[in-house]
Amino acid sequence: MFSRLSEKLGDIAHKLRGAARVSEADLDATLREMRLALLEADVALPVTRHLMSEVRERALGAEVAKSLQPGQVIIKILNDVLADVLGGQRRDLDLAKIPSVILLCGLQGAGKTTTAGKLARLLASQGKKVALTSVDATRPAAREQLQVLAGQVDVPYISGEGSTAAKMAKSAVKQAGSEGLHVLILDTAGRQVVDDELMAEIKDVADTVAASERLLVLDSMTGQTALQIAEQFHAAVNMSGCVLTKTDADVRGGAALSVAHSTGVAIRYVGTGEKIDAFEAFDPQRMAGRILG
Ligand code: GDP
């Protein structure tokens, strides 16, 4: 992920590292290069503007021109600004409640079901008693897919009863509670595109179960439309975070930056492959470092 952005910004960082001094004119020239690199990497224009003005302001405040290693100072500033935009510090899931419900939503094919299995495996490995449930009321195949995954990662699958997604969710949460489980990961139905019916259904589920975490599963290959999708889901269910899938694909990465900045919804995990263990907690500082090469 971020390969192209990393390559471009890495070049700029490399040039800066050797610079003995950086004038304000040099700084502006560097910022112009950065701006192009960000736009080419699919970072939305308002986000690029924000990044640039933050870097410029902090660079001038840090009196880059007078510092002994001006290039290093700018790189450090860019690193900090990128990390801030990506969500600042790492944050763990809020799983204080018993049972805590983690609601996963997103478009069909984004990787929701796979993510449900991966997250269940990860939390179980951390000693949590986890169960999986799907509240896709219309597609039994989707429920079966999750049931199979539950078996693979060795966690129970709960079949919620009821004719609607919200009813199924409510009954699954009740069962999880009576079985003393810590976490119930709830997979919802996806659609090809965002539509009112889907949003109403997810909102209904979210309101009914008072989910501790509401995570949007977002395909990192979605590009610029990722932002629009994220905003629509955020408006419906007030997302508490986002899982970025398929980061193993060679994508430009700008969409992730744009989503994190524009919605304020931090990326919490990334999917790094099709295998069940190809999943990791997202670390903004480390990711910023990776972008800068
Ligand atoms: P859903 O419709 O949102 O539930 O999507 P699925 O979980 O069924 O995933 C759709 C496809 O994406 C499947 O072929 C998954 O194997 C694949 N997939 C999910 N996450 C990742 C990932 O992080 N990397 C890669 N390469 N493929 C993924």
From TrEMBL:
The UniProt GO MF terms for this protein read: 7S RNA binding; GTP binding; GTPase activity
Q: Where does GTP bind?
A: 106-113, 187-191, 245-248
What domain of life is recorded for the organism? Bacteria
Q: Does the keyword Transmembrane apply?
A: no
Which reactions is this enzyme annotated as catalysing?
Answer: GTP + H2O = GDP + phosphate + H(+)
Where does the SRP54-type proteins GTP-binding domain start and stop, copy by copy? 99-293
A Gene Ontology term for the protein's cellular component: signal recognition particle
Q: What class of enzyme is it?
A: hydrolase
Domain Signal recognition particle SRP54 helical bundle: start-end pairs: 1-86
Q: Where is the AAA+ ATPase domain?
A: 98-292
Q: What is its EC number?
A: 3.6.5.4
Query: Where, per UniProt, does this protein localize?
Result: Cytoplasm
Q: Name one GO biological process term.
A: SRP-dependent cotranslational protein targeting to membrane
Which key words tag this protein in UniProt? Cytoplasm, GTP-binding, Hydrolase, Nucleotide-binding, Ribonucleoprotein, RNA-binding, Signal recognition particle
Domain comment (free text):
Composed of three domains: the N-terminal N domain, which is responsible for interactions with the ribosome, the central G domain, which binds GTP, and the C-terminal M domain, which binds the RNA and the signal sequence of the RNC.
Indicate the quaternary assembly.
Answer: Part of the signal recognition particle protein translocation system, which is composed of SRP and FtsY. SRP is a ribonucleoprotein composed of Ffh and a 4.5S RNA molecule.
Similarity comment text for this entry: Belongs to the GTP-binding SRP family. SRP54 subfamily.
Stated role: Involved in targeting and insertion of nascent membrane proteins into the cytoplasmic membrane. Binds to the hydrophobic signal sequence of the ribosome-nascent chain (RNC) as it emerges from the ribosomes. The SRP-RNC complex is then targeted to the cytoplasmic membrane where it interacts with the SRP receptor FtsY. Interaction with FtsY leads to the transfer of the RNC complex to the Sec translocase for insertion into the membrane, the hydrolysis of GTP by both Ffh and FtsY, and the dissociation of the SRP-FtsY complex into the individual components.
* Protein name per UniProt: Signal recognition particle protein
Q: Which organism is it from?
A: Mariprofundus micogutta
- Could you tell me the gene encoding this protein? ffh
